[in-house]
Each structure stands twice: as structure tokens, then as C-alpha cells.
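call fold(seq) -> C-alpha cells
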Amino acid sequence: MDHSHMDHGSMDHGNMGHGDMGHGDMPMPMCSMNMLFTWNTENLCIVFRQWHVRGPASLVFSLLAIIAVCAGYEALREGIRRYENAVAAKQETVPNEENTESSALLGVGRSSQADAIGQKAHIIRSVLYGVQNFYAFMIMLLFMTYNGFVMISVAVGAGLGFYLFGSRTKATKETACH
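ret:
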């Protein structure tokens, strides 16, 4: 049926649900998800849809932020090492109890004060361990963008962080993630 002769110009189309059809509006670019290594930064989203690289300036700021995040991870690791050393030093300064029947059950020569320090420290270390693992897996997600620029920024940040914060630790690690 031919409707070319009908004039629909005066009809109200406001409530017909055409709001998301993109009439005249620029469509929002979609995030590209690469599962292969790439240097392409067009429609690059880093970890979150809201962290969308839209041009050279946002790419540079994003890469600098990634370097800072990865250096921050090394700062966190150093902070945890310092906390553990401080707890160990504090436990060593607590005087030992004499060997009695009750102290023999708890451990020869151990102080109940040292045990209390150790229990509190273990709770704090457990929380710090969880934070460290969360941080490490977020960095892994950065790397898994498979974008060469992001990957290099992760490595630069880790190296810079180690240079700034890892002067008293070995460069080798037991695990790759944390």
C-alpha cells in the first residue's frame, strides 16, 4: 500500500518510544574488548566502562594513572613489610614469663602480652593481605586489556614503585600476581 501521499508532519511522535533511536544524536562509542595483543587505543576502556579513552590526552592521563597505581601497589607491599617488622620488634621487647605450669601450656617462655600483640597483628595482617590481593588482581585486570601501552605502563609503574619503595627487598617474587 502506498502512503507517500499522506502528510504526517503534524503528528505528535513524542510518546512513541523513539528516544533511544539516535535521531540526530551522536551514538556513544562502545568499548572494544580485545582478547589479542593490540596497540589500538580507539574505544579503549580500562577496567570500567566509565574509564573510556577518548583521545590522546585521556590516553596519556590514563597511562600516568596506571603507572601511579602500580607504583602504589609497591608502596603498599613495603608498608606491609614495615608493619610486620615493627610487630616482630615489638614482640621481641616483651619480657618472657617464667616457666610455670600455665605458661607451659601456652608455650615455653611466651608472654601472654606477646600473644595478644600477635593476635591483634594477625587480624591486621589478614586485612592487609586481602587488600593486597584485591589490588594485585585489579592490576591484573589492567594488564588483561591486552593493550601494549597499558601493559608497558603496568611494567613501568611496578619498576618505578620497586625503585622508590623496594630498596630493602629482593627483586624476585614467589608468585606472579602478588
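The two ends are 69 Å apart (CA to CA).
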